[in-house]
Amino acid sequence: MVQKVYDVKGMTCDHCVQAVSSELHGLPGVENVQVDLPSGKVTVTSEQPPDAAAVAAAVDEAGYQLAGGEGQ
User: Fold this and answer.
1) pLDDT at 22
2) Can you give the pTM of this predicted structure?
3) Among 63, 67, 28, which residue's Cα sits nearest to residue 44?
4) What is the pLDDT of residue 68?
5) Which residues form the domain of 15?
6) How far apart are CA 24 and CA 33, in angstroms?
7) How does pLDDT run across 34-65, given as a tens digit for each residue?
8) Structurally, how many domains does the chain consist of?
9) Matching Pfam families, A to Z (predicted)?
């Protein structure tokens, strides 16, 4: 398993968390999504490193935006 951490801008409530989590769970190979609302950090656990463009598109589809690059 691989974990990647992303910074997501614009999340302010539990609905935001659910929207981002739902979209990211729809990506191929994603096993788990954890969102830390106060920091805006989203940890994606997947079988292989997720495609960066697909992650950005999923976050955008949820109505939010990746901030800068990714962590780990």
Assistant:
1) 97
2) 0.88
3) 28
4) 66
5) 2-70
6) 7
7) 999 999 999 999 999 989 999 999 999 999 99
8) 1
9) HMA
User: In DSSP terms, which residues pair with 35 in a beta bridge?
Assistant: 42
Residue 14 token pair: 């539990």
CATH number (domain holding residue 33): 3.30.70.100
CA 20 to centroid of chain Cα atoms: 6
C-alpha 23 chain-centroid distance: 8
How far apart are the C-alpha atoms of 59 and 67, rounded to whole Å? 11
What is the secondary structure of 39-72 as a DSSP string?
TTEEEEEESSPPPHHHHHHHHHHTT-EEEEEE--
What six digits make up the tokens of 24? 């990211």
Q: What is the pLDDT of residue 70?
A: 47
Please state, rounded to an integer, the average pLDDT across all residues of the chain.
Answer: 92
